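URGENT: need a sanity check before tomorrow's submission.

F., can you look over the FMN-binding protein record below? I want to be sure the sequence and structure line up before it goes out.
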Amino acid sequence: MRKPARSALTMIVTICVLFFSLPVSALDRVIMEPEVFVANAFSNKPLVKTIWLTKNVESQVMTILGHAPTQLRQRYWSDGVKTLWILEEIGKEDLITAGFIVMDGKIDQAKVLVYRESRGMEIKYPAFLNQFKGLSNTSDNRLEHSVDGISGATLSVHAMERMARLALYYDQLSKAK
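C-alpha cells as predicted:
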C-alpha cells in the first residue's frame, strides 16, 4: 500500500528537480533571433558600430531609462540611411529584448525579439508595435505622442517606450559622430 504513495512522491520530486534545473533561457520566448532581425533589415549586412557611454551620454541614458545603463557601450548597425538598435530593458521582472529601426530621426520599425516575462506578451503584436512607427523624440527625449497601453501589460509597455526613446536618442548620437 505504501508503494504507490512512495512512487507518486518520487515522481513529484523528479518533476520538480527537472523543472527547476532548466536553464532560464529555456523559458525565454524567442519571437525572432536578433541576427535574423538584422539580416532582414539590410540587403547587405553593414558593419557593427559602437557608441561609447561617456559621462554625458550615461547621464542622458539614466534620465531616459530611470536607472543606470548596464553596459559601457551600445552596438548598432547602420547603412548610412537607417540605424538598427537591439536593446534590452526590464519589464516587470525580466528582460525584454527589442529591435528598433530608425530612419530620418523617426522609428521605422519596432519588434519584440525575445520576451521573458510571464505576462504582457501582447506587446509583441503588430496592433501595439505599429504605434511606434513614425514616432520621434521631443527635445527633452520624450516620445512626441503617447502610446496606448495594454491592460495587464503596463510595465512591458513602459519598457518598450523607454527603449524606443533610447533608440531615437542613440540615433541622434550616431548622426553627430
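My own read: The longest strand covers residues 106-115. Residues 21-26 have pLDDT under 50 and may be disordered. If you see anything odd, call me.
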